Amino acid sequence: MPKFEPDARLVADSYPVTELPLCQLRLMDDARFPWLVLIPRRLNVSEVFELDASAQQQLWREATAVGRAMLGALGGDKLNIASLGNVVAQLHVHVIVRRREDAAWPAPVWGHGQAEAYDLDGLADMRARILAEVEGLDLASGQ
Asked: Would residue 19 count as lying in a domain?
């Protein structure tokens, strides 16, 4: 049986954080934005409708619960949750905390300026903050 692997471009642009019931949670390597990616561990899926109903509900529970926790912990003015897949076809959902003073506001973060890679301390700090928030979530009910 083939093993799930995230698309190489997602791996190159992000860091693993943890495994959720359905998704692999990764931190995008752009310190300008608190930006996470959830990748359902399903083979050959590029669209949400290709997941069964239960997995679709779980994906939404995970995305909204993680987003709500991150917005609460990090503060922000808006939460963006999106699945585009125009460049990377493998199904993945972006969860981004936005602030009115961020570099791209109010436009999308995609294609705006150059990504600013995390330094080792910044990466460790952000990963620890995310884990602290995610560990307390009840992802079966989305709380």
From this structure: yes
